[in-house]
């Protein structure tokens, strides 16, 4: 009997679980780094037997074609995360159970473990335990239901494309390269200790907190510094300690009369100790001048070589120096290793405009200033370079972002229960700065490059390629008794104009279903220089000037070659295709050929070492970085000879000879391929040093065989070290236009799964919004894999409908363009980044972005006839104003469809007709009476819905007559909908609360790089429908 009862009770539960799973809109998909769904490290521990059915959400990828990703994610759920890193007084439960974690990335280690009970306990300490108890009281029989939920999700997840998928809020993009969509997946390069010696460098990272005037940015003229946080790191033990890293803070405590050793008396304890902070080296100052002196003492004690901050111009060191100057304290000289030099110790941008735009205008003799965000611009390709975004992709951690107003309120809170949050906020950042450099091994790599190029450490990061080439070239030229020419601007302007350009063919633009080989000359320009001995020291000038006794123009200067010398060298002269004479290596080996030969030989040695250590990924990655540095310095040597506008020693005769000879080499290779009948090949595109060869009807195996034969045949027709290398096979591919192509790449014969490889199209460009890249890449993959246009049409229309219905996440539609500085734009320029900046400057003079910083913006709907520039808004403004909507028409017709049209028009498809077939739907959200009484600014705000919330039929009475005849059903369904809205809101805000350690009603985080922020905004707007539903229940 009992079994029968259990069976009867269980069946409706399972059915309800399935129905509920079908109704879930977007909690079951983790499709991209922009998805708000929790990775495994954010999930509630699966070992807990008391997890809640309503809180359990599937972590499945939304990609139909990649099941392995989803399986990996499910396996990784069971992995344990690191010990949390925070300064929160919250501790673990007494019974040893782990805390419930909902972080949106791996949880950071917290710094206050072992807080004394007397000082560590605050009213917040019980919150974690309350949450655990609340969670443990909820549903217990989860396993069977979770199995049903996961089964249903998997069916929905991996159904064919013809099956109707449930709607999600995210734009569906291609499969991820890794489980959580990190742009780079790197090992810690510092683990390769055997490859580089100890650098003996000490780093000092600081961030500071200033009391701001409400929502304004900190201004050194008005806003005092309240606390300074620092982290000191070295690769050797620090002075007077065995530690290699120390974190601390300098805090202004005006009540300095309170004794620090007051035997645990809370009222008389120091400022941070009262807030439950421990584990930091904290020193207190009575005012800002004392704080500056404390900073000087720290620098004198540890003598750091490198001073760094994430943004050192407006914040960190820049703000510290500007605030000190406002108080008539010359801190710049006090922290210098040469304090008496007033001229070189400076931090004003007008004294170093180049430094202000490249690294930093701060110059402190004897110490290197690193502006980390500018360094990251050259290290990783991201859409924006905020600390939060860079940390997510490099450190694989998510950090919250709070406004200056929130931070000031927390620090000044009289209850002392919020101050630990601000300490955690800044300490995680100063440590994060060090971790970013360590993860990329930036200090070690830069030190090695400085030794290789023979230039200073800072110049590796700030100077250009000519500086590096000249440094290496002069070290070879000096023993040969050569000195370099330094032409004036007038001499450079009078130089002969370049006469030759590289060969860039116009491709046969179409979709290629047959194999296309890609062959590339290995370091073509350096190889040409070595093979034909092209150099400043071996050039005799243009042949039309030879045989005369007079001087003739050569480069920026002049040259004289006597007829007698020319007669003696008549058998040892080579003539370039541009008509320039050079002597053979048997007469004189040039400086450039000798330098490049040494570089390329060293690079070959490094690549051989990579093969020997191919099983060690860390060492392989380090050697890859080294060989890449050698390759880059070799490839930019040609640019040194051709820099006719701002070059140090340009010479058009040498540059023309290199370019023309390379063009001739590529043309000969193309002719050889087209004329050899046994290959049955045809060159369809050529670009400078590479060519694309079409093989009609060839299999993959035949393609690789023919590709090797072509490479060997072309190499045999050229002098050493000119070598044609068979790179890859595209099968299939699309050649769109010059420099723009995409295909499925096979690099080896035994490679089973192709790699999506794109050049120049929107999938790899950053000037469009993420949705464009996602939709284009997914469409191309569908074309390559299915060759079915109906699948592409269905997918594109589904994504457009999400945008038209307002269901797409705004994060996928944020543009981020670089700001070039107010003086770089012409008057009246309509540039979105400039427009946003102008609006911000009218409110706050300190809010101007740095030069090179990417400014995020979106396009919204506006009044008819408004120019597009007036529809530009900041994303945070759209989140805070429910009346603003993304301009779906603009995004679809101007951003999403044109790139698709450029690809699909090659096979005769009109994608704009797909959009014209779609219905234009804009559902009006139901509002409560209080919201309806608010001030209305647009006509759409006067609209109201006439749909019954139960059956969606049209009615004039809130609830239709048909549903009114079933009152019990109406009450149950409306209450269920209210409950679902509240549950979704509670579930998503749990993530924010756990990440920010803030349990206030209003979530203070404003990080635009976190997908949860946009999810919270959307769920909150949906929750605004709940009061209206309650009004219907009350009236009913």
TrEMBL record:
Biased composition (Basic and acidic residues): 62-76
Domain DNA-directed DNA polymerase family B exonuclease: 138-390
Cofactor(s) for this UniProt protein: [4Fe-4S] cluster
Species this protein is from: Crotalus adamanteus (Eastern diamondback rattlesnake)
Subcellular location: Nucleus
Keyword field: 4Fe-4S, DNA damage, DNA repair, DNA replication, DNA-binding, DNA-directed DNA polymerase, Iron, Iron-sulfur, Metal-binding, Nucleotidyltransferase, Nucleus, Transferase, Zinc, Zinc-finger
Region described as Disordered: 17-76
A Pfam match: zf-C4pol
Protein family according to the UniProt entry: Belongs to the DNA polymerase type-B family.
Protein name per UniProt: DNA polymerase
Role, per record: Catalytic subunit of the DNA polymerase zeta complex, an error-prone polymerase specialized in translesion DNA synthesis (TLS). Lacks an intrinsic 3'-5' exonuclease activity and thus has no proofreading function.
InterPro entries attached to this UniProt entry: DNA-dir_DNA_pol_B (IPR006172), DNA-dir_DNA_pol_B_CS (IPR017964), DNA-dir_DNA_pol_B_exonuc (IPR006133), DNA-dir_DNA_pol_B_multi_dom (IPR006134), DNA/RNA_pol_sf (IPR043502), DNA_pol_B_thumb (IPR042087), DNA_pol_palm_dom_sf (IPR023211), PolZ_Rev3 (IPR030559)
GO molecular function, one term: 4 iron, 4 sulfur cluster binding
Domain DNA-directed DNA polymerase family B multifunctional positions: 456-906
């Amino acid at each position: 009997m009992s079994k029968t009862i259990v069976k009867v009770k269980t069946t409706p539960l399972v059915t309800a679980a399935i129905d509920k799973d079908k109704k879930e809109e977007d909690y079951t998909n983790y499709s991209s780094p922009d998805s708000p769904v929790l990775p495994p490290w954010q999930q509630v521990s699966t070992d807990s037997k008391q997890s809640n059915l309503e809180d359990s959400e599937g972590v499945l990828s939304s990609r139909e074609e990649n099941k392995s990703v989803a399986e990996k994610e499910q396996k990784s759920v069971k992995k344990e995360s690191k010990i949390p890193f925070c300064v929160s007084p919250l501790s673990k439960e007494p019974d040893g159970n782990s805390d419930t974690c909902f972080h949106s990335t791996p949880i950071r280690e917290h710094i206050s473990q072992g807080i004394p009970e007397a000082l560590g306990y605050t009213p917040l300490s019980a919150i974690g335990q309350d949450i655990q108890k609340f969670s443990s009281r909820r549903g217990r029989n989860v396993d069977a239901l979770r199995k049903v939920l996961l089964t249903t999700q998997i069916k929905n997840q991996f159904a064919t494309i013809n099956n109707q998928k449930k709607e999600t809020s995210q734009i569906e993009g291609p499969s991820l390269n890794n489980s959580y969509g990190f742009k780079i997946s790197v090992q810690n390069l510092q683990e390769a200790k055997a490859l580089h010696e100890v650098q003996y460098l000490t780093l000092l990272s600081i961030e500071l907190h200033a009391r701001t005037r409400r929502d304004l940015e900190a201004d050194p003229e008005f806003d005092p510094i309240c606390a300074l946080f620092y982290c000191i790191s070295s690769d050797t033990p620090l002075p007077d300690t065995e530690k290699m890293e120390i974190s601390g803070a300098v805090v202004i405590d005006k009540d300095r009369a309170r004794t620090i050793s007051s035997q645990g008396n809370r009222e008389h304890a120091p400022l941070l100790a009262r807030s439950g902070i421990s584990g930091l080296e904290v020193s207190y100052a009575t005012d800002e001048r004392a704080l500056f002196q404390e900073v000087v003492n720290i620098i004198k004690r540890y003598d750091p070589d490198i001073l760094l901050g994430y943004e050192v111009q407006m914040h960190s060191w820049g703000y510290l120096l500007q605030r000190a100057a406002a108080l008539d304290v010359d801190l710049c000289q006090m922290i210098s290793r040469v304090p008496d030099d007033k001229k070189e110790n400076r931090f004003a941008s007008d004294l170093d405009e180049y430094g202000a735009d490249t690294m930093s205008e701060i110059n402190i003799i004897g110490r290197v200033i690193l502006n980390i965000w500018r360094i990251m611009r050259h290290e990783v390709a991201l859409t924006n370079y905020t600390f939060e975004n860079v940390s997510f992709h490099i450190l694989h951690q998510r950090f919250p972002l709070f406004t200056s107003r929130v931070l000031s309120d927390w620090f000044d809170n009289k209850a002392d229960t919020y101050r630990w949050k601000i300490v955690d906020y800044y300490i995680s950042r100063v440590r994060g700065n060090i971790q970013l450099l360590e993860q990329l091994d930036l200090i070690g790599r830069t030190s090695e490059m400085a030794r290789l190029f023979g230039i200073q450490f800072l110049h590796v990061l700030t100077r250009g390629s000519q500086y590096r080439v000249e440094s290496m070239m002069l070290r070879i030229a000096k023993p040969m008794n050569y000195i370099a020419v330094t032409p004036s601007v007038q001499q450079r302007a009078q130089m002969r104009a370049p006469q030759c350009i590289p060969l860039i063919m116009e491709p046969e633009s179409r979709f290629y279903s047959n194999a296309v080989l890609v062959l590339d000359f290995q370091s073509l320009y350096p190889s040409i220089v070595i093979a034909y001995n092209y150099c400043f020291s071996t050039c005799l000038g243009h042949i039309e000037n030879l045989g005369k006794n007079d001087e003739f123009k050569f480069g920026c200067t002049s040259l004289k070659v006597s007829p007698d010398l020319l007669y003696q060298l008549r058998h040892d002269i080579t003539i370039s295709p541009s008509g320039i004479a050079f002597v053979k290596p048997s007469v004189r080996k040039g400086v450039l050929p000798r330098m490049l030969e040494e570089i390329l030989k060293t690079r070959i040695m490094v690549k051989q070492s990579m093969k020997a250590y191919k099983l060690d990924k860390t060492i392989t990655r380090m050697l890859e970085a080294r060989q890449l540095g050698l390759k880059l310095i070799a490839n930019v040597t040609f640019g040194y000879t051709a820099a006719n506008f701002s070059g140090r020693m340009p010479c058009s005769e040498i540059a023309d000879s290199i370019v023309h000879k390379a063009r001739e080499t590529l043309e000969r290779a193309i002719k050889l391929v087209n004329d050899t009948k046994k290959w049955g090949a045809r060159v369809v595109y050529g670009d400078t040093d590479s060519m694309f060869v079409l093989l009609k009807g060839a299999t993959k195996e035949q393609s690789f065989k023919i590709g090797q034969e072509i490479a060997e045949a072309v190499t045999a027709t050229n002098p050493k070290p000119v070598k044609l290398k068979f790179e890859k096979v595209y099968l299939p591919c699309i050649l769109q236009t010059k420099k723009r192509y995409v295909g499925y790449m096979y690099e080896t014969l035994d490679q089973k799964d192709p790699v999506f490889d794109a050049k120049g199209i929107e999938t790899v460009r950053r000037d469009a919004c993420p949705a464009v890249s996602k939709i284009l890449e997914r469409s191309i993959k569908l074309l390559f894999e299915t060759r079915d246009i109906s699948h592409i049409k269905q997918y594109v229309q589904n994504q457009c409908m999400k945008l038209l219905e307002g269901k797409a996440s705004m994060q996928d539609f944020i543009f981020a363009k670089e700001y070039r500085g107010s003086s770089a734009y012409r008057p009246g320029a309509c540039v979105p980044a400039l427009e946003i900046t102008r609006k911000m400057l009218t409110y706050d003079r300190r809010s101007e972005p740095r030069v090179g910083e990417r400014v995020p913006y979106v396009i919204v709907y506006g009044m008819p006839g408004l120019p597009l520039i007036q529809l530009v808004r900041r994303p945070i403004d759209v989140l805070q104003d429910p009346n603003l909507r993304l301009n779906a028409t603009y995004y679809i017709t101007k951003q999403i469809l044109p790139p698709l049209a450029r690809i699909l028009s090659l096979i005769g498809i009109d994608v704009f007709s797909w959009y014209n077939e779609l219905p234009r739907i804009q559902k009006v959200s139901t509002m409560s009476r209080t919201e309806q009484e608010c001030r209305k600014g647009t006509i759409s705000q006067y609209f109201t819905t006439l749909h019954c919330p139960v059956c969606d039929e049209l009615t004039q009475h809130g609830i239709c007559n048909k549903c009114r005849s079933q009152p019990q059903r109406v009450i149950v369904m409306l209450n269920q909908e209210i409950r679902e809205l509240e549950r979704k809101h509670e579930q998503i805000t749990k993530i924010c609360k756990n990440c920010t350690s803030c349990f206030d009603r209003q979530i203070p985080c404003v990080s635009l790089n976190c997908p949860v922020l946009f999810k919270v905004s959307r769920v909150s707007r949906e929750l605004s429908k709940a009061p209206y539903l309650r009004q219907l229940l009350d009236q009913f």
